[in-house]
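Most newcomers find our protein records easier to grasp once they have seen one. The structure tokens are whole numbers drawn from a learned vocabulary of backbone shapes. The record below serves as our worked example for the rest of this section.
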Amino acid sequence: MALRWGFVSAGKICSDFAACLRSLPEDHKVVAVAARNLDRAKEFAKIHDVPQAYQGYNKIAEDPNVDIAYIGSVHNYHYEHALLMLQHGKHVLCEKPLCLTEAQAKDIIAEARKRNVFFMEGVWSRFFPVYQKIREIVGSGQLGPIKIVIANFGDCFLDVERVCKKDTAGGAILDKGIYAIQLASMVFGGQKPISVTSSGYLLDTGVDGISSTVLKYPNNAMAVLNSSISCDFPNEAYIMGEKKKIKICFPFWCPTKIEISEANDKIVEVHEFPLPDIKWDFNYTNQAGMQYEAIAVGNYIKEGAKESPLMSQNESIVIAGIMDKARHDLGYYYDDEK
């Protein structure tokens, strides 16, 4: 029987994920979509052949035909929407960043465990074949002891109102930095860093325009993670060991190619993995790769798992804590944090 999805929001990322689910018709079906505006939900339903459109997200929570809720709303609503779905016994896949603070992350995950349902933060990067290859290479010791991860993610989004406003939890760390942070966290096994230090500047709106975050880990290892909504970055990442290094080619958060080099920058291996062939006009870069995440989530639920070993609930808490400290170092506090 296909896993029945209910969509919390009818935005662009939801549309892309729905297209990926529709490419897996035997195992997945979108049965309902909700939005604040009923016309928008109906339009989404028509485009993606969804049988039920609702106004109001509580209708997804109350729908007995929904097995799992996909939360694709703006992230300042994730906390409210995740708790609503969990309290009605739904499995949940929630887009990243999971929520706004470490405290909120702990609340959500405690509720998921209380309800004994599957819950995962939707860090889709973890399910790309390139990321699987990275885990294999790092785990094999081929690179030698890992000394530093460097990741850069920046786009000029100064004309995107949501990303620049504090009341929608905008800023570089929450919008871009999550991807760099999750990469470093994966490489270093999801452990809590010894220290987190951030520098950068705030826009006039109070959110960070550019940030540089340094994470220190045991054994003299570290990560340097740069994020921006004020200008474009190369958007590549590097994992450097004592023997060799990996370059994760653009776009590092949803990649199809890595290069392994020796100390003299001589490329000794190249690994490429084509995206799934899905006939859809996607809104964002390499979104066909969301299919990998969908397949994994479906398998977890079939197996009775409550979380993913590739993106654990405890690691979501660690990542939320890193983002809290990074924001606070820059002087970025939400109104209710002061």
The chain has a mean pLDDT of 97. The chain has ten helices and 14 strands. The longest helix spans residues 313-329. The CA atoms of residues 125 and 131 lie 7 Å apart.
